[in-house]
What we know:
Chain A is mainly α and about 300 residues long. Chain A is built from 13 helices and no strands. The longest helix of chain A has about 30 residues, at about 85-115. Mean pLDDT of chain A is about 80; it is low at about 1-15 and about 20-25. The model of chain B is unreliable at about 1-25 (pLDDT under 50). The chains are: A mainly alpha (about 300), B mainly alpha (about 325).
Amino acid sequence: MAIAVTEAPPEPPAVRVRPKRARRARLTPGKVLLALTAYAIAMIFVLPYAEMIISALRPPKELLSRGYLPRHYDWSNFTSIWKTGFGQNLGASLKVAGGSTLVVLLVALPAAYYTARRKFRGRSLFLLLVLATQMFQPAAMLVGIQREFISFNLPSPIISLILVNAGFNLAFAVWILNAYFSSIPAELEEAAMVDGTSRLGALGRITLPLALPGIVTALIFTFIGAWNELLVALTLTLGAPDKQRPLTVGINNYIGQYSIDWGHLFAGSVIATLPVIALFALIEGKVVGGLTAGSIK
Amino acid sequence: MTATDTGAPALGSGPARRSRRRRRPGRSGRLPYLLILPAVLVLLVVVVWPLFKIVQLSLQKQESGKFALFHSGASSPFAGLANFRTVLSDSTFWAVVGRTAAFTAINVVLSLLIGIGIAVLLNRVSKWARLTLIAVLLFVWAVPTTVSTQVFYWLFSNQLGAVNYLLDLIPGVHMQGHDWFADPHQGLAVITAVVVWGAVPLLAISLHAGIGQIPKEIIEAARCDGATPWQTFRQVTLPVLAPLLVILTTLSVIWDFGVFNQIWFMRTGHPEPGYQTVGIYMYSTGVGSSHYNVGATIGVLMMLGLVGIMIFYIRQLFRIGDAE
């Protein structure tokens, strides 16, 4: 950001890789080099995924060929994968991630709103409990979680997974929403109420829209967290029918100990990435702000 | 979003209005507890109860490994600290602990260094380069670890992998058919690459935003006083970023300490002993071979270790922050 502001005497071009001083409009070799570095890094990050998509479209007999692009493209991996039970795994993943996102928002919103607006006895205790759970991770408590849900005997591991994923993502949601609600002055709501809106109307029309970046951030974090979760899913779907397993577990079907079905694995990976990317594309702009709000004051 | 927009206020509707009169003095009766009750319930069920359970299990003797899945565990006799003695006197456990510590340290340091590097770069390049790189970082961040791990597994595979192919093109290097996973150290290096790869986007983007919030006057003042870019970074940028860095380091340690997915996938669901970090070891002992009392003991130790590290580390960082 310093580029736009500094008023430094123009330096002779060349010499430095990193410009000591930022200049206003001149294109110096240093600046060009920095931009090129940025583009190169971006390329490095993108290439493996391009390779994944290309490999998913590569006909099986061309898998060994060295050309970067296959001679012809073959969509059969994307059509035949649905016959392997992939659709059911995808459905299970959507249910788990969607369900836990919904639970987190329903549970975290009122708690975060109220702890941000009012002081009451037990408020700091509650926030401390939430913070403490952020430190814990399912890995350490896995055996406890497994035995707990065995004793609950729920009809489907999907319900257990919704609960567990909601629980372990709740802390982050409560904290970030709490930070957002605290940053919105209560006077705004009161002003709306003076103008004749009900408290709920003020909440719905003023506070929630203002807190939207925070809500979106919490939503994305929970969804991605639940979508990627493997360890608990692996444990809680032990002995469950294949169709109740989320993608992270189900995709192992394409990996044998001695041979790997690369075509289906990559087609599955591409499809597994799509919902998350779609979610991102929808709400992209709000995320960066949401991530950092309140982190530095 | 409709569900949440309508759902959340509905929860607070009735009581909120009734308690309006009493709200002024700052006491609102039962309403706050009603509103936080669902959150507390979820945390009790998902976090507190299993925590209690692993502590309980770690103090009990295992009756039978065979039916562990269906064994209620209610009648297990109290065993004192026998499980802890078993685990702590096991040399495998200590090897796993050492490996996890080294793995975590390397991952956290690498991802923070690269993250800071990219964040600084982002703050210095022109708008288009910045937006492109941020878009790519967001994309990489959104891709599930499962997927990126598989891509890396493919890139490093001995017969078909692009890495061996490209390295082999360098004169004097013979990497054709090299198996990266035969030696656990090389294998863990590849896994480190995936972990760092997945961790960098979040770190870079939040640090970039953090640097952006530093008042430009301070940076300029430092520059006017003749500070080199490195001095400005060291004396101005880093101290301001310290609180954010504490949070990010803390989270990175927690995440990298518990890395499971990447190792699990890279070893196709059967991690060899040389690949076992604490998370994998706990899973294969406690769940895989149904020694759930020992698994619970390892879980308790994991938890203690993590809390210990975190307390130590946070205090250290605050001390550094105070000194500057």
